[in-house]
Structures are given as structure tokens and as C-alpha cells.
Amino acid sequence: MQSPINIDTAKTIFSPQLRPIQLSGYSLPANEKLKLRNNGHTVLLELPESLAITGGYAQQYRAVQLHLHWGSPSGPGSEHTVNGHRFAAEIHVVHYNTKYDSFKEAMVHPDGLAVLGAFLEVGPRENPYYQEILEHLYKIQREGEEVLVPGFNIAGLLPANLKLYFHYNGSLTTPPCYQTVKWTVFNQTMVLSHDQMSMLVMSLRNDDSKPLQNNYRMMQDLHRRRVLSSFQTTLFSVKQLPPGSDSSATTEGQSSSSFHAGDVLAVLFGVLFAITALAFLLYIYKHRSQNARLDSPTKSKVIYTAATTENTA
Hints:
The protein is of the alpha+beta class. It folds into 2 domains: 6-256, Carbonic Anhydrase II (Roll), CATH 3.10.200.10; 265-298.
């Protein structure tokens, strides 16, 4: 039941019961100050309890903090992977179930936590929402340092499309790694500029005063857990969660998507090629059969009759 995992889109199960994620209170005024901290493992932004998940889950979950995972100049560093592909970085927004009085109490219960995850990629444009965090990293280079930053629209750190996502039951990816997290990993990715990604990867240091890099946990075994998806992940998907099933019971600047369009196009072109080849072979077979019948006198059924002219005189 540990996280992160590799999401194999060929094995995910489509669940119509998975509704779009709905967020509340995520747009914060600039006069509301937020604490940004280097905790030696990641950069962490504390969030006010006014932020909440109000749709997509059976219960409401209140935000606590968000943090990021990244790689190094020599490689990517997302925690989850999709079909074995690791992305440049990954953001996690951590929430706890409002039925409990605190995050500390909730984290030990099976339905206690919900984490929203999104992949980050490098693109041509600067992301203004991530810049609200990145421009302050130079102030918290060493472990334990913190700074207050102006509030902004936290929802801008997540994809605009909150309908398409993967869902499974897992754990926190840092100690104590409680197995009490309902994971939502969005299909749509976020784009940062090359300079912004370099700023994230190169700015911070850990408790040994070494560059804080590759702060992702290694992949964990799925152990018969089911990974659900809110959308069809294959062209001819036949796996679907039965109606009435509990979609949460998974024991078994946006750009692209983690399930790339190229995968669908490759399948589509393959099918079209196979159909074309089959049609060509059928044409050749039919053409040869017709020639064989015409060339064989014993099989000829054509009778020639001379034309006549009717005499009307």
C-alpha cells in the first residue's frame, strides 16, 4: 500500500463514478501571507484551512501544505511515473479529512488523507503561478530557513482540467509513510520554463549543505491494488468498474497529458495500416480468382449469341 507507483495505463480501470475534482477557497488575496520553508527534504508552502476539496471525493478534505519533488540537471525527478516515464518534477497538495480535528489525528486513519498530484514539464513559457514560489527560493537556501510570501491563486499550480485523473489508495512518500492516502494524480501536466525548472533544481541545499536534488522516493510495488481512471485510457478499453462499485476501494499553465496523445495515434495508425493491408490482400485474391476463371475453358460459363435484327416488314 506504499507510494509512489508506476501507473500502467493499459491496466487502469475506467470508473464512471469518479467525478471531477472541485476546489474551494484556493484563490488567496495578496495580503494573506503564507510561510514558505526549506525543511531539508523539499520546499514546503503552508496553506490556510480555508482551502478544501469539496467535490470528487465522498467526503471533504481540508488543505494543509503543498510541496514539490524534482530531479537534478542530469535527470527528471517526479515520484509517480506513467508507463515507466518519469517527469521533470511533481507537485503534491496535501489535505486531511474534515471529519477529524487535525492532520495529526487524520493521518492514522484509512480515510484520513487526500493528496492531489500533478506532473511538471519543461516548456517554452514561464509559469506565473509557480513563479510566486520560485522567486523566493534564494531566501531559503539552507535547511530550516523560511520566508513569508504573498497569497496567490493556488489553483493555478494545478491543471485547469480537473476531470481527468488517476486514483488509487497509497501512502505518504516521506516518513512515517502512513498508508492512509487517497491519491489523485492528474492526467494533464503543468509547464515551467527551462529557467524556472533550473531554479527549482539548483536553488536549495539539504542538511549536509549539499544541493537538494533527486528528492523523490523510489517506485513501490503495486501489490494487487487497482488503479482507477476517470477517463478511458486505451482506444478499445474494455475494463470498467461495475456500476455501484466503490470507486475509492482501490485495494487491488497546462500543456500535454501524462497519457500522451502519441500513444493513441500509434494505436490508431497501426489499426488503419492493418485494415489497409487486409483490403489490399483481398483485392489481389479476388483479382487472381477472376483471371483464373476467364483463362480456364473448362470453367467458362459464357455463351456467345449473335445479335439479330427483327424484320418488321
